[in-house]
Amino acid sequence: MALQLYSTLTRRKDAFQPIDPARVRLYVCGPTVYDQAHIGNARPLIVFDVLFRLLRHLYGAEHVTYARNITDVDDKINARAAARGISIRELTEETNAIFQEDATALGCLPPTIQPRATEHIAAMIEIIEKLLAGGHAYVADGHVLFSVPSMPNYGKLSRRSLDEMIAGARVDVAPYKKGDLDFVLWKPSSEAEPGWDSPWGRGRPGWHIECSAMSSAYLGEVFDIHGGGIDLVFPHHENEIAQSCCAFGHDVMANVWMHNGFLQVEGEKMSKSLGNFVTIRELLADWPGEVLRFNMLKTHYRQPIDWTLASLRESQRELDRWYPVAKQFADSEAMLAPEFIAALEDDLNTPDAITAMRRLYKDATEEVAFAGARFASCGRLLGFFEKELNAWEHWKPASFRVDEILVATKINARLEARKARDWPASDRIRDELAEMGIALKDNKDGTTSWEVKR
Ligand code: AMP
Ligand code: ZN
């Protein structure tokens, strides 16, 4: 089977045909760096990392270019920097550094390029000038706006009616706007706001223009795959398409548009007011990154995902079983299992790929030839088994990082109590340790070992 991908443009799975198989090009909208990424943001990170890995496997690592931008100019950034009393640069550097560490901890390969919006202002201005020259944009009150009625097939990606688009765009009604759906390409900046000189005065770009500029700069005017979360279909991606197609004169911007479904936590939309808003950072204190990654990939990327503690525990248990077997075959280079690759080639069906791995794991434990080696290879393709077995088995969540001297003292006290046949004291100490999350194991030779319970 060859690679098939579901595209939001066609609303079906199509055979994937790269424009140039020697240079397969993928663009994914990256973070706005004003605050720590939450577990919902981890979904596109992980999903498109799996796509990147699959494309590298199919076309050769050097033939795939993956660009994921960093939005480092945005009004949310200005507001947060002001609230914290730090410079915009300090805020974006700090947030981006945390984001990069989170992505690495989640087992994501670095994209080929991570362009920053603030380093591509000239390219944005150039596109805006093209749009003005082509009659697709107009200047009003210091702003430059994209004229939506100038594009006949605007709305092709989201397939919404005009009324729905107007409601969904939640665009500010501004007196200088000619059409309700017209959106900002450039806006003026006050002295206090970040700004760049432009033909329309000192100002800053709108959000959508960044992605048109950065994708065309690195991947060309038309490229293969554009990705992001489902919430970006409208207006962000619709507007990216409008800008790029009207500026460059093509019918399409990217051939395939892929969108991951939304993530909710314990059955509810994540929100600060509900108190179920979890950052990747917080989760990484309690779970290894590979457990978070595995938990994400058990659901198909287009389905909504309900992020629960129960499924996290299950993911941890399964990886705990898998790790020793995978490590036994760590050095063997085996062929990937055909059913595993077929699952991934079927629109990135990671749950089916994991099912294939479960079968291989079972065969591996029954010592079926090659199963173990295949099992380990499949896992590595998905970004698993990156840790040493010892490191995996001794990893402890931050909340369980224990005072080892205290534990040793208590264990000795308990051994003394047992020697003295003081069973109530022995039991009391065991209970105290259990309170601390420590499980004891009495060995035949009279010593006691312990582990942290999860
Ligand atoms: P943002 O920083 O809000 O622009 O989001 C960065 C990426 O995360 C975008 O691709 C969003 O679509 C995606 N995203 C945000 N929230 C969620 C969520 N709850 N579930 C899945 N994806 C999300
Ligand atoms: Zn974008």
Describe the overall structure.
α12 packs antiparallel against α13 and α15 packs antiparallel against α16 (about 425-435). The radius of gyration is 26 Å and the shape is globular. α1 (about 40-60) links the parallel β3 (about 25-30) and β4. The protein is built from 16 helices and 14 strands. By secondary structure, the chain is an alpha/beta fold. A 4-stranded parallel sheet has the order 4-3-9-10. The longest helix has 21 residues, at about 40-60. The structure holds adenosine monophosphate and zinc ion. Zinc ion binds near residues 211, 236 and 240.
Specify Rg, calculated over alpha carbons: 26 Å
Shape from CA axes?
globular
Distance, first to last CA: 41 Å
Q: From N to C, what is the helix and strand string?
A: EEEHEHHHEEHEEHEHEEHHEHHHHHHHEE
Largest sheet: 4 strands, parallel
Rounded mean pLDDT score: 94
Poorly predicted sequence stretches spanning 5 or more consecutive residues: none
Q: Would you count the extended β strands for me?
A: 14
Question: Per DSSP, what share of the residues sits in E-state strands of 2 or more residues?
Answer: 5-15%
| Strand arrangement in the largest pleated sheet | 4-3-9-10
- Helicity, as a percent range: 40-55%
The hetero compounds bound to this protein are:
adenosine monophosphate, zinc ion
**How many helix segments?**
16
User: What is the SS-derived class?
Assistant: alpha/beta
